[in-house]
Every structure is written in C-alpha cells, then in structure tokens.
C-alpha cells in the first residue's frame, strides 16, 4: 500500500533541479477547473449551458485594465459542450459578477437580473464599508483630474503673463506682413504663367503659302498611301493561276483555212503522185478536224 500511494520518493545523488525544463505557458495563460457562474446560451448552436457546469477554462489577465486602479480583471475562455464554439467572459468587479464578451448570450429569464442586483446593492450600501471605499476612490480620482486641469491652466496663464500688449500687436503685424508677401508672390506667379507680360509675349504669323504647301503635301501623301493600300488589297484578293498541264501546253492548234485559198494554192493533179507531193499534203492537213 505504501508503494501504491507513493509517499516516499527517491532522489539520486546526481539530481540537479536546474536541469528540469520549465513548463511553457501560452501567452501567459493557465488552465483552471471552474464552474460556470451563470446560465448562457451558445450563439453558434443555441445550446443552453446551465449554471454550475464544470469546464477546464483558460484564464488570463486583462492587460491594462484594473478596477479602481487596484483590482485585477480576469478573462476566461471555455468551449460549448455541443458545438465546441469558443465562449469568452470576464470578471466584473463593479457589479461583483461576470460579463460576457463573445460567443454566447445571457437568457432573459434569470431569477437575478442585473437591475435587481443593483437596486439591492444600493439599499444595503449605506453601511457597507466596501461601497464607501469605492465611493472615496472615485471621488479621489475625480479630484486628481480636476487638479491636473487647473495646473495646466495656471501654467498657460503664467506663460501668457510675461507677454505685453505691445509685443502681441507686433507679432500680429509681422504675421500679417508675411501673409501679404505670400499672397503677392502667388499673384505674380499666376500672372507670369497664365497671362505673361506684354514685352515678353511675341506673336508669329504663319504665311499662307506655307499652309497651302503643307496641305498639298499632306493630301498627296494620303492619296499615295490609299493607292498602295488598294493595290496590296487587290493583290491579296486575286486568286492564284490554275496549274497548267505540260502536255496541253505543247499542243499547237492551227486555224482552218478556207477551201478557195487551198484550191488556188494547189492546182488539180494529173493523177500522178510523187512522194514529195504526198509528204506535203500530209503536212498541210487540217488538224482541227475530229475525223
């Protein structure tokens, strides 16, 4: 039984506690086991979580916020038991309770509304020492703010007390002269840019002949460009010539001569033929006849 309860522990001779690594805490947070101090409704799934439900919540200090400058305010993170949505609430020392920040809402049927708690606190606040202390702290803070404002007003008046009326008028006069000089410089700059002086302005008249020559050159160049564009467009639209057959290109057609010219050129034969006459007749045949 003693070994099971682990009452005694053995530490070796070479044990060095400085070598044990410290546990890392995320953003100065710690996990605490707590019960929910109020009934809430999850804003994600609408699940009601009753008062007294236990959670492993993450606890952290609210940075830069203390009640009456002394009481630390804490923030808690829990998760809905149904949808695991995060619910955030914090302590409220002013009302001695808790206030929701995000993730859930408080139902309206709670038996301890905030107005009733405030009224009861005011009724029993006459003899409560804590309430009297809180009131004195609020009054002290208000008096400190008033004293700071008065001190600032006194310092401002002391600085102004050393200024005489003549010095004030002189400073106003210098300020007016500086503004007048700036306005005069602006007017000079605007007049020189927009209008200019009569001496500085110079006009140049363009001869009419130059205009006509320029117009003619322009029209001629336009016409030449239009002609070139038309020629190139027609050349692109013209279809390529069809391929010609090599055999057809070598065939020569002979025109048919009238019979009268043949009879005049060739007199009737006497019935005797020679080899030379036959060869000539073959050469003079009409190749256009299909027969």
Keywords:
single chain; 291 residues; alpha+beta; five-stranded antiparallel beta sheet; three-stranded antiparallel beta sheet; 8 helices; 8 strands; flat; mRNA processing; Yju2; metal-binding; zinc; Splicing factor YJU2
Uncertain stretches: none
**Biggest beta-sheet profile:** 5 strands, antiparallel
Helical content stands at 40-55%
**Separation, N- and C-terminal Cα atoms:** 139 Å
| Strand neighbour order, sheet with most strands | 1-4-5-6-7
Q: What is the residue-mean pLDDT, rounded to a whole number?
A: 75
Query: Over the alpha carbons, how many angstroms does the gyration radius reach?
Result: 59 Å
Q: Number of helical segments? A: 8
Structural class: alpha+beta
What oligomeric state is this? single chain
Indicate the overall shape. Answer: flat
Number of DSSP-assigned strands: 8
Strand content: 15-25%
Order of helices and strands: HEEEEEEEEHHHHHHH
What does this structure look like?
It is found in: Nucleus. Belongs to the CWC16 family. YJU2 subfamily. InterPro entries: Saf4/Yju2 (IPR007590), Yju2 (IPR043701). This is Splicing factor YJU2. This protein is of the alpha+beta class and 291 residues long. The strands form 2 sheets. A 5-stranded antiparallel β-sheet has the order 1-4-5-6-7, with no helix packed on it. Strands 3-2-8 form a 3-stranded antiparallel β-sheet, with no helix packed on it. A hairpin with a 5-residue loop joins strand 2 and strand 3. The longest helix is centred in the middle third of the chain and has 33 residues. The protein starts with a helix and ends in an 8-residue tail after the last helix.
């Amino acid at each position: 039984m003693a070994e099971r309860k682990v009452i005694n522990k053995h530490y070796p001779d070479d044990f060095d506690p400085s070598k044990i690594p410290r546990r890392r805490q995320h953003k100065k947070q710690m996990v605490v086991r707590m019960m929910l101090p109020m009934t809430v409704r999850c804003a994600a799934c609408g699940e009601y979580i009753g008062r007294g439900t236990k959670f492993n919540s993450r606890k952290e200090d609210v940075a830069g916020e203390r009640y009456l400058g002394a009481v630390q305010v804490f923030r808690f993170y829990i998760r809905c038991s149904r949808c695991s949505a995060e619910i955030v609430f914090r302590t409220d020392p002013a009302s001695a309770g808790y206030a929701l920040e995000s993730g859930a809402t408080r139902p309206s049927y709670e038996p301890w509304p905030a107005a009733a708690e405030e009224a009861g606190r005011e009724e029993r606040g006459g003899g409560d020492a804590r309430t009297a202390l809180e009131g004195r702290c609020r009054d002290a803070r208000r008096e400190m703010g008033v004293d700071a404002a008065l001190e600032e007003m006194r310092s401002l008046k002391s600085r102004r007390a050393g200024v005489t009326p003549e010095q004030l008028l002189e400073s106003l006069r210098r300020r007016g002269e500086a503004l007048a000089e700036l306005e005069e410089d602006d007017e000079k700059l605007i007049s020189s840019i927009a209008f200019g002086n009569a001496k500085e302005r110079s006009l140049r008249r363009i001869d009419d002949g130059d205009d006509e020559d320029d117009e003619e050159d322009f029209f001629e160049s336009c016409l030449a460009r239009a002609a070139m564009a038309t020629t190139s467009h027609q050349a692109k639209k013209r279809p390529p010539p069809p391929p010609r057959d090599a055999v057809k290109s070598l065939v020569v057609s002979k025109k048919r001569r009238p019979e009268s010219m043949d009879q005049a050129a060739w007199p009737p034969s006497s019935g005797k033929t020679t080899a030379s006459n036959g060869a000539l007749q073959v050469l003079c045949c009409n190749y256009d006849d299909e027969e």
